[in-house]
Design a protein that fits this description.
The chain is an alpha+beta fold. Among the domains are: 55 residues, no CATH class; 103 residues, Elongation Factor Tu (Ef-tu), domain 3 (Beta Barrel), CATH 2.40.30; 76 residues, Helix hairpin bin (Helix Hairpins, Orthogonal Bundle), CATH 1.10.287.470. It has six helices and 19 strands. It is elongated, with a radius of gyration of 43 Å.
Length: 399
């Protein structure tokens, strides 16, 4: 029994020794990665110029291809609403009915006036013909003949006037049925049944927005437009050079349809120094609405740029720094200027670094200017971390 117990204690002590050794090796690896005493090994990347697809974003406002204000052409009380707010309507569909009674009466009166005028013309024509016969027989003189002809001309003029009044009366009657001039969606309706409306009303009856296609307006600075114009030659070529653009809508998502930039304003706003531009998007599901807002996203390719990982940078008083490895493997704390990318991983370096520079890409917060390190590749660093993690897992399994 005593011999078996001694053997068990010996085996247990051996296991503990092996475990302690592994933990020591793992800790050593971590110290080297973190800049603690040891060989001070850090992953270093040699910067090379690259090409990347970038995006420019501009605040935008959204309008329907046609936003038509519906206004009454005549005065009267609304007797019927043909649609409700938000209704999808078609060209020619009735929106409002204005009381037609007085306009029907005006049409009837105008029709009667036309009949009277026609009868008067017929009578005057007979009289003129009769006077002509008498004149040919030398029974009457020039005066009576001319008076008969003048009376015919007057009666014909009265007939024309009566016919014009009939056209106006019929047109006014047609205006009592207010229809949609195009396909679209009905906006707010401030007037209801019983409201007195007329051409002098400041507020329209409603607005019909054709939103099968949407106009998205945004602005570009004068400097940006000049750069594009110099590169492309003229405004026409600038428009042709633009790729398809995307629209980020109010909830932060990207609209499914892509658009095209079609127009550039010929006038620069003197207060903002910007020029208005318009992109057109199809809107088959009517997701976009007039009056909405978003951001136009224009993709472009940038060549010969320098990228650094965000993990390689430190920040002091809103300024970015990286540690450049000198020829003697001593660190140089270097300030850089950057432009954010949307990938959440890298910074685009606009100044402070150049191709061929060696930059420490991990453990930046533990480094100091002038520190002496042993550069290793990112692959070597990853392999060491993997090895240390595997040893830790193995020891955990033996326990």
């Amino acid at each position: 029994m005593k011999t078996k117990m001694n053997r068990s204690l010996t085996t247990r002590a051996l296991q503990i020794s092996v475990f302690a050794l592994c933990i020591s090796l793992f800790s050593c690896g971590k110290k080297q990665q973190g800049g603690m005493p040891g060989q001070h090994e850090y992953a270093v990347r040699t910067l090379q110029p690259t090409s990347i697809e970038l995006q420019s974003s501009y605040p935008a406002s959204i309008e329907g291809k046609q936003d038509i204000e519906i206004r009454p052409q005549i005065s009267g009380f609304i007797t019927k609403l043909g649609v409700d707010e938000g209704s999808v309507v078609h060209k020619g569909q009735t929106l409002f009915v204005i009381d037609p009674v007085q306009y029907k009466a005006a049409v009837q009166q105008a029709e009667a006036s036309v009949k009277v005028a026609k009868a008067a013309v017929a009578t005057a024509r007979l009289t003129a013909k009769n006077k002509k016969d008498l004149f040919n027989q030398n029974i009457i003189g020039d005066y009576e003949l001319q008076m008969a002809n003048n009376d015919l001309i007057s009666k014909e003029a009265n007939l024309s006037q009566a016919q014009a009044e009939l056209i106006t009366a019929r047109q006014n009657l047609s205006y009592t049925n207010v229809t949609s001039p195009s396909n679209g969606v009905v906006g707010s309706i401030p007037y209801r049944v019983g409201s007195l409306v007329g051409p002098s009303n400041a507020t329209p009856l409603t607005t019909v927005s054709n939103i099968d296609e949407m106009y998205v307006y945004f602005s570009m600075t004068e400097k940006q437009l000049l750069e594009l114009t110099r590169k492309s030659g003229n405004t026409v070529n600038v428009l042709k050079s633009f790729p398809d653009v995307q629209l980020k809508i109010a909830d932060g998502s990207i609209y499914t349809e892509t658009g095209r930039i079609e127009t550039v304003s010929g006038v620069i706003d003197p207060t903002t120094g910007s020029v208005s531009m318009r992109a057109t998007f199809k809107n088959p599901s009517h997701l976009l609405k007039s009056g909405g807002s978003g951001s136009i996203i224009i993709p472009y390719k940038s060549d010969n740029i320098i990228l650094v990982p965000q993990t390689a940078t430190t920040e002091v008083q809103d300024k970015k720094y990286v540690f450049v490895v000198g020829a003697d493997n001593k660190l140089i704390d270097t300030q850089i200027t950057i432009s954010n990318l949307d990938n959440g991983q890298d910074y685009l370096v606009t100044s402070g670094l150049k191709a061929g520079d060696r930059v420490v890409v991990e453990g930046a917060s533990t480094l100091k200017d002038g520190m002496d390190i042993k550069p290793i590749t990112e692959e070597e660093s990853a392999a060491k971390l993997k090895q240390a993690a595997g040893m830790g897992a193995a020891m955990g399994g033996k326990k």
